[in-house]
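Supplementary Text 2. Reproducibility record for the structural model of the 135-residue chain.

All settings were left at their defaults, and a single model was retained for analysis rather than an ensemble. We include the record here because the model underlies the residue-level annotations in Supplementary Table 4.
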Amino acid sequence: MRFTDFQGEWRIEREIVEAGGATHRLAGTAQFSSSPDGLLYREDGVLVTDTGARFAASRVYHWREVSGGRIQVLFEDGRDFHTFDLTNSCPEDQHWCDPDQYRVSYDFSAWPHWQSVWTVSGPRKDYRMTTRYQR
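Retained model, structure tokens:
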């Protein structure tokens, strides 16, 4: 798998499970498009909460290939988010967002189906978010 293999549209399904048991789901698409410094990631979907409330949801990140197969992920405004090693089929990283800790693990072992799992813990947030991607 190469960095450019992400380019294009992906269907996404997300499950967010809070520590207290509430489960929320999102269905939508993620589009990786070429940008001057890498790939622009744009996600759009509908989030359905455990109570049935529905919300439009979107997010934007910048993905850049840095040295040796490392991918740098930046927030939409250019701030650093995290990095991971694309040469590893199950890379991990973390991001401190005071006062909460974000840990991510990717799984590319069933490419082109892949997933990210974020485990977030701290005084403000406590949940596990799994996003599955497929063409």
